[in-house]
UniProtKB/TrEMBL annotation:
It comes from the Bacteria. Belongs to the ROK (NagC/XylR) family. This is ROK-family transcriptional regulator. It comes from Yersinia pekkanenii. CDD domains: ASKHA_ATPase_ROK. Pfam families: ROK (PF00480).
Length: 341
């Protein structure tokens, strides 16, 4: 996420409010003293912020710790029902696919999940689906939308679902629903979700390769916790690498062609960003988990073992995808509501 510059007293206060709220989420339950130790903020500052957050209902003074002399200490918890976040993505083509939705609480817990098969997807179909979920859950304050395409400033430039191309989707949804909305690329979200769940403390590059059954491979990259989008939001379009459509052996079996493309893609990533970890998901019944071993053996013929990343096979991108949308949207919404509202 883009870091908000702190250049005024008000912004510093707002930054401290976010710090206290996020710290309380991570601690589950804490006293003012606990939060002061974790954040480095003074007891007085923590007390003021906790009082403000309690007054808004964002946190709850749950109980009072047993006193060891002096005034007993209040214990606080984050109010998970303060608001909720909707993660939704569409995958497939104009004529077939799914719309997958996941509702999470303000502290990231999954509340509900829905999958809907479609036979014809238009912008109105997608908007109607989102509207229906919002109507059924009136506590939604932020929506993240994932699409298989290039999205710049909330506008869909290219997409596997071509009916959505050219739409200023963020603007249209925000105007229609009156809710914070962001729209992003499927692989960026998926890589971010995998990073947050599995590699949060790793600053070295993390990559995520997805090879869907009917479309070209895609790749998401996270470096030091930030999505790598590129100057024109085109980073990760690995199907445009020069070898992709020209396997050496055109008569090779299907699984062998997939492995060959995977070797080329991973080799390119190794020499360009030198990733620590690469997650791989292949939606093809002919390709098994053994592809990781085959891939590693092939790469050892080209690279010293110290340059090979740690490989993780993912049976499905769905949990990483939804986690990425939810976490990134939650971060963005928290920055929005604290610094801009």
């Amino acid at each position: 996420m883009t870091t908000v510059p702190i250049n005024t007293t008000r912004q510093m206060k707002q930054k401290n409010i976010m710090l206290v709220a996020n710290t309380l989420k991570s601690l589950i339950s804490a006293t003012k003293s606990d939060i002061s130790v974790q954040t480095g903020l003074s007891l007085a500052t923590c007390g003021t912020i906790l009082n403000e957050l309690c007054a808004k209902g964002e946190i709850i003074a749950k109980s009072v710790d047993e006193s060891r002399g002096g005034r007993p200490a209040k214990r606080y918890i984050y109010n998970s029902s303060y608001f909720s976040v909707l993660s939704i993505y569409a995958e497939g083509t104009n004529t077939s696919g799914i719309i997958s939705s996941c509702l999470t609480s303000a502290d990231g817990k999954i509340l509900a999940e829905y999958d809907e098969v479609y036979n014809h997807l238009t912008a109105e179909t997608l908007m109607h689906r989102i509207q229906k979920i919002v109507d059924n859950h009136n506590n939604i304050k932020a929506i993240g939308v994932g699409l298989p395409g290039v999205i710049v400033d909330g506008k869909v430039l290219t997409c596997d679902i071509t009916n959505l191309e050219g739409l200023a989707l963020t603007e249209q949804l925000s105007s229609r629903l009156g809710i914070f909305v962001q729209v992003g690329n499927d692989m960026n979200y998926t890589a971010f979700g995998f990073y947050r769940n599995n590699c949060r403390n790793i600053n070295a590059p993390i990559a995520y390769i997805f090879m869907p059954p009917r479309h070209c491979a895609g790749c998401g990259i996270v470096i030091s916790g930030e999505m790598l989008r590129g100057a024109s939001q085109f980073a990760g379009e690995v199907s445009k690498l020069p070898f992709y459509d020209h396997p050496k052996n055109n008569m090779a079996c299907h699984s062998a062609r997939i492995l060959e493309r995977l070797i080329h893609i991973v080799s390119s990533l190794i020499v360009i960003i030198n990733p620590d970890t690469i997650a791989i998901s292949i939606s093809d019944e002919q390709v098994s988990h053994n592809c990781i071993e085959d891939l590693s053996n092939a790469l050892l013929k080209k690279f010293d073992s110290k340059h090979l990343p740690h490989f993780v096979y993912r049976d499905s991108i769905k949990p990483d995808y939804h986690n990425g949308i939810s976490e990134y949207t939650l971060d963005a919404y928290n920055n929005f509501r604290v610094f801009e509202i």
